[in-house]
Amino acid sequence: MTEQSEQPAVEGEVAPVRAPAPRARILLTLAQELLTVERDPLPRMSRPRWLARLPHAVVIYAAIFFAFLTAQQMGEHYDDYGGIPLLAGLLTGTSIVLAMFRPIGGWWFGLLAAGVTAWSVRDNVGPGQTWPWIPSGLFAFAPVLLLVALRVPPRLTVAAATVPIALTGLAELVSKPEHSQTSVLAALLVFGFVGLLGYALRATRLARGKLVEQETITEEERARRTLLEERSRIARELHDVVAHHMSVISIQAQVAPHLVENPSEELRENLAGIRENALEALTELRRVLGVLRSEQPDDPANPHHPQPTLAELEGLVDNVRGAGLAVTTEIAGIRRPLTPGVELTAYRIVQEALSNCLRHAPGSRVEVGIAYGPRELHLCIANSAPTRPAPPSHGAGHGLLGMRERAGMLGGELAAGPRPGGGYEVSAVLPMDPETKRTDEDA
User: Fold this and answer.
1) Residue 292: what pLDDT?
2) Contacts 24+ apart (CB under 8 A), 28-33
3) 3-class DSSP assignment, residue 7
4) Distance separating alpha carbons of residues 341 and 431, to the nearest angstrom
5) Phi, psi at residue 382, to the nearest 5°?
6) Cβ atoms 90, 83 nearer than 8 A
7) What contacts 108, CB < 8 A, 6 or more positions away?
8) Suppose 437 and one of 178, 287, 399, 411 were both cysteines; which one would form an S-S bond, judging by CB atoms 3.0 to 4.6 Å apart?
């Protein structure tokens, strides 16, 4: 013993409360569970649907049957007539119906009905008759115990079956009528069998539920695998169709200067630009194919599939300048690295806007503005009126829609439209931290 434990308790000092022993905790938990009459309705039958309410109908029929049977046996076999048998029959039927919705509450009502019945017939018990359970009361309590065992844990089922058996033995020891037969053995057999039956049915239902859950998980895994296979197929198709033609363009652009006698420097530069663009397109294509083949395509930090960021903006602008478009850039605010999703979205919006300027506004002047705010990134790509007519476009025209979708996925906004003095403008606002923005909006 420690020195502190040897000292006597000072008068007025509160002694520390010791934690109850494990067995005492178990008994305390069981007592609390037996006093919790929470709602737990009896579930319907899943198949067939037209018999979904059959268990409820059977329970109600059993309640009515045992209510009348209890009152009849108390009158005919125990010569007990009047209001008490009617009350006992009403409590018996109520306990069965209540157990269908609140199993522990119905169990308590069943014990109350048994107690009222035993008290009422005690003075009229004759030779060979059972007490404290009458035959109908013993079997009327069985469906109540079954409904309890179907919906509570096994330890509570054991307690629900043990308590009435113990009360039966205690009643016979204290106040057993003379010449009456014991009902402890019958209660032990009936309640033990019903408890085991309920436990087995509950275990079967839980196992079936886990099997359905496992089948659902398996179906989701199968759908996920199908999606990955489809992504791989798309990746192969993209590689076979696009990569072949881009490779041919790159080779032709490299060979073309050798097929022309004394090619001009401007022609050489244009062909070199075509080849560089084709090689860059192949690089981008490989990145996209890698994402399609990845099992986690939404992870922008995947080191095997690096994505472009705003740090590569100058290279993008230089590439557009080389195609003959006058582009100026202006960056405001403190330039800093952003989350990979924001970096990629901002880069793609600028890239698509510049591509639209090349296609639809040849000869125009383009201004690219990027402003780093405290919580948002502002983008503005504006071009002046074109100086020459644009060639006909054979594209599907989904570039603007794609930019809006990219901005919307991050919780940002994008607007596009003609400028008052001619030309076109695309502006976007992207949150610096998309996750925080979503959390604020949900709150």
Assistant:
1) 62
2) 30/155, 30/156, 30/159, 33/104, 33/152, 33/156, 33/159
3) coil
4) 10
5) -125, 140
6) no
7) 37
8) 411
Mean pLDDT computed over 405-430: 90
Tokens found for residue 355: 């591509």
Q: How many residues does the chain have?
A: 443
pLDDT band at 61 (very low <50, low <70, confident <90, very high): very high
Average pLDDT over residues 386-393: 76
Instruction: Give Cα separations from 141 to 93, 161, 180, 405, 412 (angstroms).
Output: 10, 10, 21, 64, 65
Q: Collapsing DSSP states into helix, strand and coil, what is residue 423? A: coil
> Which pLDDT value is given to residue 408?
87
Whether 37 and 64 have beta carbons less than 8 Å apart is answered as no
pTM of the predicted structure, to 2 decimals: 0.50
Note the Cα 83 to chain centre separation in Å. 55
What's the Cα-to-Cα distance from 335 to each of 113, 343, 370, rounded to whole Å?
A: 80, 12, 9
User: Cβ distance 385 to 361 under 8 Å?
Assistant: yes
